[in-house]
Amino acid sequence: MVPVQPPLPPPIPPGAVTVPDPVPDRDAEPAAEGALARSQAARRRRVLDATLQLAAAGGFDAVQMRDVAAAADVALGTVYRYFASKERLLLEAMAEQQADLRAYLEVHPPREPTPAARVVSVLRGANHSLREFPDVTAAMVRSFGTAQIENADIVRRVTEIMTGIITSAIHAPERRAATENEVRVARILMQVWLSSLNGWVCGVDGPDRVDDDLAAAAALLLP
Amino acid sequence: MVPVQPPLPPPIPPGAVTVPDPVPDRDAEPAAEGALARSQAARRRRVLDATLQLAAAGGFDAVQMRDVAAAADVALGTVYRYFASKERLLLEAMAEQQADLRAYLEVHPPREPTPAARVVSVLRGANHSLREFPDVTAAMVRSFGTAQIENADIVRRVTEIMTGIITSAIHAPERRAATENEVRVARILMQVWLSSLNGWVCGVDGPDRVDDDLAAAAALLLP
DNA sequence: GCGAAAATCAGAACGTGTTCCAATTCCGAT
DNA sequence: ATCGGAATTGGAACACGTTCTGATTTTCGC
């Protein structure tokens, strides 16, 4: 079992949190020009980094909005200008993490011969990374489980990314549209994944259970 | 599709909340004798009823501990003596609801000819009831999704009841031990169920999606 | 450069979950 | 009937997410 090396980004290299890269605010936006946009992107990034840093230390409860603001060197009100709630903040971080995983897998698709083996390989790799920062995972999964209507958009984005990752694994390395049935199976696997993660971060099951659940489901649902 | 009639208990007949039945505190405890135990059981019940009543009105946010205490005619501290947190309060209500469903199904097992059809029938019936009180469902599912380590026991209880309901449906009406494979399948279906409910209460999907997801999963996993 | 508009800041303030405490009431054994 | 201990009460107090406000700074079009 080759552990897919760096699927999820580490929650933060503990130094260098000031003035990171001037990426555009969200993925897919045409990179607004001025200095404002630049400093805003930097601020947003600092807030997200501070969030991950705090979550890595003590999980959901350690992500206190006043601390996030302080660590990001930003006023509390500014945090709320960028992220409408603590929940949203963590969900955006989760979406970013999943998007990073997807990007990584596009460069390093799984090589196993069968769909089931590929799916298991990808998800094991992801879980491996999640297990290295259990508190970050717990914070994100918990936010996911608490989600309200006002965050439906990010929740949807996260589930779509996860489903996309799984469908890609099903028919990787060939890149073609997924069949209707593949999408159904991928959705089920994503649901199993989320529920299983929830069971883990709640302390109901050990972390291995996540891998086991997914392996069992993949074996039953995929050739 | 015969909607299984009253699988989940209605959140409360809006009247008659004072001094309900003196059932023993939890299921399976030998009904302690004295007046103390009796009044305690009544108190506990009032608190749970008040919780459901408030949840039915406005969901998770409407269940405010001070209001629960007032509605149950009990001091705030007493609520916390019985339920260590708001989350726990809602999870215990959820466990009770699921236990009621299980009890109902023992009397009215599904009659369909195939395991898949029986499972779909049972879960559709349950969903039908859940949809009648969406705010109650949302409150419970949300508590489930937020669960912490200190509530691992109830979370486990709930998942076990749900899994048990599904395994029973798989091989109902004959009552025998479930095979290892049936348990695996039941667990996957339970996870799909929970995830799907989460998607519904988050506003990501419509309520029909829950039925659809379960039907699709059952079709893929069961004969 | 200059002025208007937007963004940010610092901090107060509010609501709700949770904890704590002193006073009181209730139960059960003597 | 009474005493001791446990349960309950009413309410204050605290923590943290969230909102609000007025002052200050930054950005951009002129």
Map the helices and strands:
2 copies of one chain form a homodimer.
Chain A: H1 35-58, H2 65-71, H3 76-82, H4 86-107, H5 115-132, H6 134-146, H7 152-171, H8 180-201, H9 208-221
The first copy, chain A, binds a DNA duplex (30 and 30 nucleotides) through residues 34-36, 39-40, 43, 61, 64-66, 74-78, 80-81, 85-86.
List keywords for this structure.
homodimer; 223 residues; mainly alpha; 9 helices; globular; DNA-binding
- CATH top level of the domain at 86-221 in chain A? Mainly Alpha
Number of strands of chain A: 0
Shape of chain A: globular
What oligomeric state best describes the polypeptide chains here? homodimer
Largest interface: A-B, 32 and 32 residues
Number of helices of chain A: 9
CATH homology superfamily name of the domain at 86-221 in chain A: Tetracycline Repressor, domain 2
CATH topology of the domain at 86-221 in chain A: Tetracycline Repressor, domain 2
Largest sheet, strands/sense/barrel of chain A: none
Structural class of chain A, by secondary structure, is mainly alpha
Helix content of chain A: 55-70%
**Please, what is the average pLDDT of chain A?**
88
How far apart are the first and last residues' alpha carbons of chain A, in Å?
19 Å
Strand content range of chain A? under 5%
| CATH architecture identity of the domain at 86-221 in chain A | Orthogonal Bundle
Q: SSE order of chain A, as H and E? A: HHHHHHHHH
